[in-house]
Amino acid sequence: MSFGHALYYPFINLTNKNWLKNAFLFWDKISRIVPYSVSPSDSEEIIKIKYETGFIENYSPDRRVISNTFHTFSEYLEGIIDSEDFYRYYMRKFPHYFKDWEYEHWRRFRKDFGFRRDILESIVKSSGTYLHVQKIDRNLKEKLFDLGLAIPGENEYEDWIKIDNEIGLIYMTYLAKSISKEKTIPIVTDIEQFYSASILFEPELFRDYQSEFEYKLGNLLIANFLPKDINSVPLDKLIEIRKKYNAERTNFFNMISELCRTLPAIDNESALKDALNHYKESLIKQTQKLKGIYESFKIETICKFLNISVPSALVSISDIIPIPYKPLGIGAGIILGLVSAVASVKKEKKQLQERPLSYLLNVSSELSGEDIFRKINDTVMGLRRWKIGD
Question: How far is 26 from 242, CA to CA, in rounded Å?
Answer without folding.
Answer: 9
